[in-house]
Amino acid sequence: MFCARGAEVRVEAGRGMRVGENIVPQGAEARAGELVLAAGTGMGAAEIALAAACGRGELAVVCAAEGWRLWLRGDELVEVDAVPEAWQIRNSNSYELKALVETAGGVGERLAVARDIREEVRERIVQGRGFDLMVLSGGVSMGEYDLVEEVLAEFGAEFFFTGVKMQPGKPVVFGRLPEWNGAKACYFFGLPGNPVSTQVTFHCFVEPLLRAMCGAGVAGPRFVQATLAEEVAGKAGLTRLLPARLTYDRVRPTVRVVGWQGSGDLGANARANCYAVMPDGQEMRAGDVITVLLR
Known about the structure:
Elements: E1 2-4, E2 7-9, H1 45-53, E3 68-72, E4 77-78, E5 89-90, H2 93-103, E6 109-110, H3 118-128, E7 133-137, H4 148-154, E8 158-162, E9 166-167, E10 173-177, E11 186-191, H5 195-213, E12 223-228, E13 239-247, E14 254-257, H6 266-271, E15 274-278, E16 289-294
Parallel strand pairs: 3-6, 3-7, 4-5, 7-11, 9-13, 12-14
Antiparallel strand pairs: 1-2, 8-10, 10-11, 12-16, 13-14, 13-15, 15-16
Helix pairs in contact: 2-5
């Protein structure tokens, strides 16, 4: 029989005990002076618990919450409580983008929709100046009324890229506006207007920058490997990111592409929980291991 601070602890017959058994020694998790939370670490439940265990009830944090303005462009957009005409659609993208920004750790401010009029596009860009980042949706393709790049160029924009070889999301643009009229320099993304394209390009390009602006360091999109459940035909010239569902078992995750009608299919996008990455021109067979973009 052993005594533990006044309580009796009885050992079963035939059961031995060694000195220090089942005791975690002081300093086993971390030693005095050791770094446990590096600058730029995202503060989730595990990190908050660790800080509390170390006696830190308050921490200095940084977030790009005040560095975002979101605006949409297009005569065809109406608000969610309106009944669209045959040629119109409801403004879902601004709500989608705001939710994406907040999920990634920021707080976005929605601006009014700009019609396909140069003066309105210019006005929205002026409103977005002074923020660290503007996210624009629509108006970045090659149509007659796609005015965003032209107006950005009027403000002296430096374009880092104007399109990528991916589907959906090919016409995405990224750049930087210089200081202007007392406003600081400002980075911007011009995302495609179709809602699935908007979400795919956000996860690929905008979200990593947002996390870096919050101090999380350089980190790319979140990818995993999974087994493809069925054959998917290839398409030359573009890497495709298709809405898909990822399921898990004890061996390896499995991914199955969701049937969809293109980059405006919000129903298919809602049924998906990831995007299956289909390499340029390659036909993928059931059982192949592919890359999956998480969201």
